[in-house]
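From the methods appendix. Each design record in this collection lists the tokenized structure first, followed by the designed amino acid sequence. Records were kept in a plain field format so they could be parsed without special tools. The example shown here is representative of the layout used throughout.

RECORD:
FOLD TOKENS (455 positions):
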């Protein structure tokens, strides 16, 4: 008799250990079997008495109606396949005021109507959101459908992305292309015409840790104004500066939706205009003098990259060789070098950014740029000077404040990276969700640190 009691006690402890190893709250391991394919089948029973509570009225039921089996999928255990079979009970609700006649047991570990355990769903969302894994790869690894993994990711990021926007002092606005432009050949003219060119406009915390605040379809002033007007007035009132590239559409939107904010032109795009001007002058001069495109035997074409390189980054002997080779070509080389000097004068003006320059120094370098642009007969240099004059208040704000739209450019790179990982997005909502989650990591880390600090 004592030996039999001892055996039963050992069996009871082994079941308890198996349940503790599985660690599904409210469920206990009844037995473990092997299937015909070498996998393991774990039979589960309910131990949590609250599982018999009616989901409509909350009253505990004591009237058993029957039993059913469900097969929730769980996280992997080892190298062998593990399948769960939950032997659930179906209860009758005897509460007279309750409209529900019967119900099956449900627990927090396995939610009602779900074929996944809660921890597997959490694991799927974490794998995509925090580990940067691809949806299709995670679906194949965990043996579930693509849509299940995507739904877990959406649930994982829903609450953080729906949180109120953080306060923003410097707002950055920039566009990024959604996919590739679509071209089609006209049947009559046989020319290729642009059919669709899809863009997203992104709003970025350009001087803080807020990351990518939102994206909207299109890059028009109407789309930008609509998003800005949809935000709370106190949030908009906190924006003191708005950094953009030289976009008339965004400038119009800022003036209309944020009239009190100072417009800041991104210095990188201003410098890119100067490089474009120099390239256009070089190409035009070669065509006019040679009647063809540049060749590697032409000094202007051979020095094309040195012309676009900043003067301080060229070694003295390299700069002298470039300068002398163009001077030796006569008037064509002189005209190209004049455009080069205009470009360098604009760079010298932009280089004052971040140095807290005095007003007279800014005016001196601006006048020097205008004088060099006026001294050349290149129409490209004249157009550049006109552009600088039209955007001068925004350019001056960039020089005096040091603000730029570099954060937007960095997030554009992350947006393209996410597009490559997904092999393109067909659904723009999914694309914007994935991109914004990728571009708010710094904000989430900062929020986590601030929440742990004592009040």
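DESIGN:
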């Amino acid at each position: 008799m004592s030996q039999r009691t001892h055996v039963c006690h050992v069996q009871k402890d082994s079941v308890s250990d198996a349940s503790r190893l599985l660690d599904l709250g409210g469920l206990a391991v009844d037995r473990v079997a092997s299937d015909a394919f070498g996998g393991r089948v774990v039979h589960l029973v309910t131990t949590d008495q609250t599982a018999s509570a009616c989901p409509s009225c909350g009253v505990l039921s004591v009237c058993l109606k029957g039993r059913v089996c469900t097969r929730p999928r769980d996280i992997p255990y080892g190298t062998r396949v593990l399948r769960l079979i939950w032997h659930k009970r179906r209860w009758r609700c005897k509460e007279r005021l309750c409209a529900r006649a019967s119900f099956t047991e449900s627990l927090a570990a396995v939610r009602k109507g779900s074929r996944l355990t809660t921890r597997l769903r959490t694991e799927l969302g974490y794998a995509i959101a925090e580990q940067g894994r691809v949806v299709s790869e995670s679906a194949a690894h965990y043996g579930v459908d693509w849509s299940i993994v995507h739904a877990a990711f959406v649930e994982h990021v829903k609450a953080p992305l729906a949180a109120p926007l953080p306060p923003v002092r410097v707002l950055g606005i920039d566009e990024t292309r959604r996919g590739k432009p679509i071209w089609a050949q006209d049947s009559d003219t046989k020319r290729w015409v642009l059919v669709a060119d899809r863009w997203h406009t992104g709003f970025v915390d350009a001087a803080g840790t807020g990351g990518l605040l939102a994206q909207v379809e299109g890059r028009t002033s109407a789309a930008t104004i609509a998003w800005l007007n949809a935000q709370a007035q106190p949030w908009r009132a906190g924006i003191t500066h708005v950094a953009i590239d030289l976009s008339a559409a965004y400038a119009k939107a800022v003036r209309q939706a944020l009239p009190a904010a100072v417009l800041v032109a991104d210095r990188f795009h201003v410098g890119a205009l100067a490089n474009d001007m120099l390239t256009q002058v070089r190409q035009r001069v070669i065509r006019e003098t040679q009647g063809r495109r540049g060749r590697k035997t032409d000094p202007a074409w051979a020095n094309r990259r040195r012309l676009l390189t900043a003067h301080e980054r060229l070694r003295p002997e390299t700069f002298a060789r470039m300068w002398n080779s163009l001077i030796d070509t006569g008037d064509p080389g002189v005209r190209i070098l004049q455009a080069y000097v205009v470009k360098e004068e604009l760079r010298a003006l932009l280089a004052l950014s971040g140095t807290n320059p005095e007003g007279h120094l800014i005016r001196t370098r601006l006048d020097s740029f205008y004088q060099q642009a006026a001294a050349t007969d290149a129409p490209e240099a004249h157009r550049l000077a006109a552009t600088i004059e039209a955007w001068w208040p925004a350019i001056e704000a960039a020089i005096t404040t040091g603000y730029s739209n570099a954060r937007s450019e960095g997030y554009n790179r992350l947006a393209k990276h996410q597009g490559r990982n997904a092999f393109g997005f067909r659904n723009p909502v999914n694309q914007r969700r994935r991109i914004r989650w990728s571009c708010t990591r710094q904000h989430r880390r900062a929020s986590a640190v601030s929440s742990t600090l004592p009040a």
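APPENDIX NOTE: The first strand starts at residue 27 and ends at 34.
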